[in-house]
Structure formats: C-alpha cells, structure tokens
C-alpha cells in the first residue's frame, strides 16, 4: 500500500488520476469557490454603477480564475506551485478598488474611465508579487509557521461565519434561521460527512457534489429552490483591455500595499496546501513551490487585469476540499482551470450554479472551512510552542478575531471619530446613512455574503 493511502490520501501530489474521478474532484473545488469568485465583481459593480457591465465582469472573473488555477497546477517555466491551488477574486482589494473608482468619478470620469483606470492600476500592481517571489528566501524568516498558521486559522474562522450565515438563508433572507433552512443545511452537511467517511473511493470523491445535489433536490421538493432566468448571452469571448489603459500613482500605492498583505495570506495557503498534500514545508522543493506560487499569483493578477477582472489570490477553500476528498493530485488543477474557463465562456452555466440555495451552500462549506481552521492549527503546532510563540498566536487571534467581534473597539482609531462597522465584505459608518467606501447592498439590493480567499 502506498504512502498516500497510509496518510489518508487517495491520490498523492504527483499521482495521475483517471478523467472521471478527476472531473468530480475538480467540480467540488469549483462549487466551494464559485461564490467567492463572483461576489467581489457583484459588490464593486453595484457600488460603482457598473450594472451594464456586470455580466462581463463576472464572466471574466471566472475565466481569469481558471487561467490562474491552470498555471498554479502545471508549473511551467517556474510559474506555479505545482499543487491544486485554486485562484479566485480577492476580497482584500474591495476597499481600495471602490475608493479608486470613486476618485475617478469625482474627477468627472464615467464607468468606462473607472474601469480603464482600475484595471490599468491593477496590472501594474501585479508586479508586486512577481518581484517579491524572487526574494522568498529572506521572507521565510518573517513568514514563520507561527505567523502563516495563525493567518490560515483566522481565515478558516471567518469562513465558518460565512457558512453559518448562508446556512441560515443569507443575511437578507426573510426566513433567516428558520427551521426549514437549518434542516436543509444540516441534511446537506450530513450527506457530505457520511460519504466522506466511506471506504469506497467513489463515494468519497463525489461527497460534496452528491451532498449539494441532494440538498438542491430537497430544496426543490420543499419549495425553497426556484430556477430563474439564465440570461440572454449564451457565449462570451474575452477582449484585452476593452476599456483602455490608464494609470494614477495615488490609486496605485494603496493597491500595491494590499498586494503585499495578500502575499502573506498566499504563503499561509500554500503552506497549508503542502501539509495537506503530504509534502515537506522545510526544504528546497517547498521554497520553490512558494516562489512559483507567489509568481503565479502575480501573473494571474496581470491576466485578470487584461481581461477586466479584479485581482486574484490563492483561495483557502480548496485546502478543505483536498482534505475531505483525499485527492491532492495536481492534475486535478487542470480540470478546475478548464471548468472555470468554460464557465466564463458560457455564462448560463455559471448563472445556474449561482442559484444553488444559500442553506445548501452553507451546509456544504461548513465542514470544508472547518478543515481550513484545522490546517492552520496543524501548521502552528509543527514544533513545540515556546512562551514567545504562544504570545504571538494569542495576539494574532485577538487582533484577527476579537476586534472583529466587537467593532466598537476600533471607534477611537477611526479618522473622524465615527465607528467603522464591517459586515462581511461591507463597511458602514455608525451615525451615518452613507456607506464608505462602498455600499452594503449588492446587485438588486440584496445582501451578499462573502467567501474570502
């Protein structure tokens, strides 16, 4: 019996996987990350008044994510980590992107001027991870397992909150936390857990897909799932910089700073992915994976800007899927990439998947996001913790989770004394009817619950 089977993996990192199980495994990664990919363009588009271009922005976001994921798994010319590293639209850039768009609008620019400026700036800012990827060796002294593990655990904790909200029906649902929503999510979760524990590899490979399918059928039978229009556009080809190319240093600087922050998150995601894939995290091969992974993040962001999609980053969600299915084969990443590209080319397919009921998605993602937390804890505890390490972890969890739980704590530190309150990916100011820098309303006025990468 192979080492992969001893470690709980059905397919190791370099093992080739037959097409059918590879497709099922890839589909589960896509389902886990789909909402996270399409939500940022929905929020940004609705806030900046880009409603006429929203379908195009969503399609290009899916396509850019697919290209980035394909690059990550193949590691051609040193670009990519050579693992299943799903790329998706980053929520970290929401604030600076909307602020930049508002600045262009204040200067008298229209929607197309905003997009020309934003995507031009994003293209140049993508050079930040490209350059930083060449200096991973000294950065490893900063990005220790204590730091990266804490980041991954906190990402997982924030994702669990999103799962619970979706499980209850979504923040704006009239029947929020109703027994029907709770039962629907619980049923979906139960099917996934049951199949994930099965010894039959086919049941384990298809656990998430089957769980979501069962949940959708149950939702349809109970009247909670209604298909809506899939749109009029059946096929959409990309165009490079269709709105032109503009640049402004004042907008570039904050975007570049956010790019640096995203590198820390990516290092944590790549470290967790390596551990789950049963790879060393303290050898030259791992350092090469980090270099290639960060470089691919930058190249992926460049591709995204050229297609008019917002910046990409390595998602944490798929680490949970790897652990659930036991499939770490990097060749699955090719399937994920192709599926996402096809979703971008054929918008109705993505629109169909977007209509999966929120309680079903909440139940399906709950255990996967829990696995992300476990992966972070695993990184932290690779070696015995010193007193200093315990202090660092404690402070990280206080800042990352505690302050977010009580937003009023940040009131004295706000620029004008008003309290900045963040709801998921949305920020409002207490004592004001305005939303700064972006509104909490998504397309059509519905609240959108984010899934961050």
From TrEMBL:
So where does this one cross the membrane?
Answer: 20-47, 53-71, 83-104, 116-136, 143-164, 176-195, 202-225, 245-267, 332-350, 356-380
The alphabetical list of record keywords is: Membrane, Transmembrane, Transmembrane helix, Transport
Indicate yes or no for the key word Transmembrane. yes
The record's subcellular location field reads:
Membrane
State the source organism's domain of life.
Bacteria
* GO terms for MF: xanthine transmembrane transporter activity
Family affiliation: Belongs to the nucleobase:cation symporter-2 (NCS2) (TC 2.A.40) family.
* PANTHER family reported for this sequence: PURINE PERMEASE C1399.01C-RELATED
Q: Which NCBIfam families match?
A: ncs2, NCS2_1
Main subcellular location = membrane
Q: Which organism is it from?
A: Klebsiella pneumoniae IS43
What is the protein's name according to its record? Xanthine permease
Report if keyword Metal-binding is assigned: no
Q: Where is this region: Disordered?
A: 428-453
The membrane topology term of the UniProt record is: Multi-pass membrane protein
Q: Name one GO cellular component term.
A: plasma membrane
Q: Name one Pfam family in it.
A: Xan_ur_permease
